[in-house]
Amino acid sequence: MAPPSTSAERAAAPAPAPGPVSQHPAATARPPRRAVARLGLPVLLALVAVVTVTPFAVMVLVAFAPAGGQTLPGAFDVGRATLDNFADVLAGADITRWAVNSLVYSLVSVLLILLFSSMAGYAFAKKRFPGREILFWSFLATLMVPFQATLIPYYILVSELGGVDTYWGLIVPTLANSQAVFLMRQFIVQLPDELFEAAKIDGASEWRIYTAVVLPLIRPVLATLGVFVFLWHWNDFLWPLVIGQSAEMRTLTVGLATLEGENVAINQVMAGATITVIPCLLVFGLLQRYLTDSIATSGLKS
């Protein structure tokens, strides 16, 4: 009969080797499911990107296709690509004049809307005056009114003031942008109040506070809003069509629409449309960094 082992001997004895652990079938099935779930969102985003880019790709293919390659099978033959469509549309239509009108309409509107909306946003966010909330929400309620409902009153007012076929008649009615004011106000309200109090203690005027404190801090949202406003005005069609009644005051969107009515070849129309996309891509590419900065600084708190 073996003597009983002591506690020290039991502690020094090697532990038994672990046997094989049986895995539940559900445990082995979880990693593949997680992998599929992780791949699901990228695949979905890729499909959405393909659906979004396809019309633009077809537009470019048709723009570079020769006169006989109007349909997609012919446009897919990239070996026959040509620049004749661009040369024909630039020579046959007043694309340069339309582009200048679109640039003036877009750039001037961007500068003025950013100026007015930042001022209004600063006032609604940091100033205290009677009726501030009522005025802000009343101004914001105009978002629920479609532009088509105010088109005729706008036109009557501008025409009575002599603004038909003028740049100011094209630009001024679009400056009261409630969306821009709302975005500015929501961003400025997050800025620390201590900055404005310190500026007032130092004797800074309201204009000094606006130019030296507010504007430097809201540069990301200014760039972001500037991109959106530029795209809105560059692609605007209805108001330029109504107010610019002469051929000299047409914008690119209106001018390209008139080309379709003049039985111009579809290849030339797509070439003109390709030209109109280039400024949008340049603006977005130059200001893309500020878009990410705006998202990163949107949670600024004191």
UniProtKB/TrEMBL annotation:
TM helices/strands, residue ranges: 39-64, 103-125, 134-156, 168-188, 209-232, 265-287
InterPro entries: MetI-like, MetI-like_sf
One of the GO BP terms on file: transmembrane transport
Main location: membrane
Domain (ABC transmembrane type-1): residue spans on this chain: 99-287
Keywords, in A-Z order: Cell membrane, Membrane, Transmembrane, Transmembrane helix, Transport
Annotated Pfam families: BPD_transp_1
GO cellular component, one term: plasma membrane
Stretches for region Disordered: 1-29
Subcellular location: Cell membrane
Membrane topology: Multi-pass membrane protein
PANTHER family the record matches: ABC TRANSPORTER PERMEASE PROTEIN MG189-RELATED, ABC TRANSPORTER PERMEASE PROTEIN MG189-RELATED-RELATED
Similarity section: Belongs to the binding-protein-dependent transport system permease family.
Name listed for the protein in its UniProt record: Carbohydrate ABC transporter permease
Species assigned in the record: Streptomyces pacificus
